[in-house]
């Protein structure tokens, strides 16, 4: 325990600014019931004890509690140990100063290799979960326990928990190796003989990650029958299923639906520098959106299967009436349109233009009889048609 064995400052951050009630209900009982802590942290009622609801002094350091919604609180003091609680509930940016996790971690940089940053959270949505991203960058440790029948070491998966439909009390775990039925009463011995094992290679060798679900709850806490009951209750409701997956299994929720939403699009994002064609791009296209005050151009790279990448986005200030924007003299264009209108009239077409605008010119046949039909009594003309001239 850091307070009892190390001389250092500690920063603890929750998604919101901690209340005095939270300190009284969570921190004060912890200190009171731990002899090692009680000896070092004097009671708040003592004069000049340095013990307040949101700050706990102890020999050699101080524990400061703050909220991730306050940039001032996150960078208020250097801390060798940083504890970030429920990071998935943190805001994306705090007080327009950026990611609160980054702000909090920056306060420990002074301590170099001696610092420790501990992030913990119930996961939320796949692709946007902070704790999922941090865990995937770690060595992804799982708690392996032995099968009481064959001794095979394995980490517990929800898919191996089976029960009769409508009878969650029949739930039992089935070994991943021998498929034998493992009962609830086997769990204490399994947990006692368990060990943490890395299942991946961390991007940074100094980073370790741990995952634990309610399947490991010791007897008297949440049983496998309780978990089966929760699953049956949640079935049919996306919101209930999401709560079950997040809070019981400790896994992120995958959004579903017919139309892509921003979470699922975020999952598929890729990074590449602007102006660079990704490896799969075979050819480029560009399209321009012409407005009165600007021209916006997108350059896309296209690959097999209609896969596309936005390569560049360019905004040219000034509309089509400004030669510096288009490279054309609009007065010259208008003179050409006038000449086209005169030529159209000579052959019986009405040529409509909108000077200074980007609309295409239209050529429409005039409603007058064809010379060969001049003697017809009804004087009708052929049905009018329109042709675009860009």
Short recap of the structure:
This protein has 390 residues and is of the alpha+beta class. It has helices spanning 2-5, 20-33, 35-40, 71-74, 100-106, 130-136, 187-192, 224-234, 238-248, 262-267, 323-326, 330-346; strands at residues 10-14, 55-58, 61-67, 81-85, 116-120, 141-146, 153-155, 161-164, 167-174, 181-182, 195-198, 210-211, 283-290, 294-302, 308-317, 349-352, 361-365, 387-389. A hairpin with a 3-residue loop joins strand 13 and strand 14 (294-302).
Q: Which overall shape is indicated by the principal axes computed on the Cα atoms?
A: extended
CATH topology of the largest domain: Rossmann fold
Q: Note the gap between the termini.
A: 77 Å
Helix percent band: 10-25%
Which structural category do the helix and sheet elements fall into? alpha+beta
| The CATH class of the largest domain | Alpha Beta
Number of strands: 18
Measured by DSSP, the beta-strand proportion falls in: 15-25%
Number of helices in the DSSP assignment = 12
Q: Give, in order, the helices and strands.
A: HEHHEEHEHEHEEEEEHEEHHHEEEHHEEE
- In round numbers, the mean pLDDT is 79
The total domain count is: 3
């Amino acid at each position: 325990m850091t307070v009892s064995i190390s001389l250092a400052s500690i920063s603890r951050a929750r998604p919101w600014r901690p209340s005095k009630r939270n300190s009284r209900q969570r921190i004060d009982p912890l200190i009171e019931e731990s002899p090692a802590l009680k000896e070092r942290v004097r009671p708040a009622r003592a004069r000049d004890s340095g013990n307040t609801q949101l700050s706990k002094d102890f020999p050699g350091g101080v524990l400061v509690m703050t909220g991730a919604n306050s940039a001032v609180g996150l960078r208020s003091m250097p801390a060798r140990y940083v504890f970030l609680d429920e990071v998935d509930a943190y805001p994306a940016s705090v007080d327009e100063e950026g990611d609160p996790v980054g702000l909090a971690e920056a306060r420990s940089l002074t301590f170099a290799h001696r610092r420790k940053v501990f992030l913990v959270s119930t996961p939320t949505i796949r692709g946007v979960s902070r704790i999922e991203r941090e865990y995937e960058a770690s060595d992804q440790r799982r708690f392996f326990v032995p099968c009481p029948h064959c001794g095979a070491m394995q980490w517990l998966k929800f898919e191996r928990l089976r029960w009769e439909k409508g009878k969650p009390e029949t739930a039992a775990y089935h070994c991943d190796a021998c498929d034998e039925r493992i009962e609830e009463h086997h769990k204490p011995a399994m947990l006692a003989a368990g060990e943490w094992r890395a299942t991946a290679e961390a991007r940074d060798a100094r980073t370790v990650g741990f995952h634990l679900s309610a399947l490991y709850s010791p007897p008297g806490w949440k049983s496998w029958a309780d978990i089966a009951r929760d699953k049956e209750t949640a079935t049919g409701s996306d919101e209930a299923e999401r709560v079950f997956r997040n809070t019981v299994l400790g896994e992120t929720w995958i959004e579903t639906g017919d139309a892509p939403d921003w979470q699922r699009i975020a999952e598929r994002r890729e990074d590449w520098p602007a102006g660079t064609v990704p490896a799969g791009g075979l050819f480029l296209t560009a399209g321009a959106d012409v407005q009165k005050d600007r021209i916006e151009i997108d350059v896309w790279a296209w690959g097999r299967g209609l896969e596309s990448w936005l390569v560049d986005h360019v905004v040219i200030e000034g509309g089509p009436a400004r030669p510096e924007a288009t490279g054309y003299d609009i007065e010259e264009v208008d003179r050409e349109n006038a000449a086209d209108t005169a030529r159209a009239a000579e052959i019986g077409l009405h040529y409509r233009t909108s000077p200074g605008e980007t609309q295409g010119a239209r050529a429409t046949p005039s409603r007058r009889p064809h010379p060969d039909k001049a003697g017809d009594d009804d004087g009708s003309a052929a049905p009018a048609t329109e042709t675009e001239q860009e």
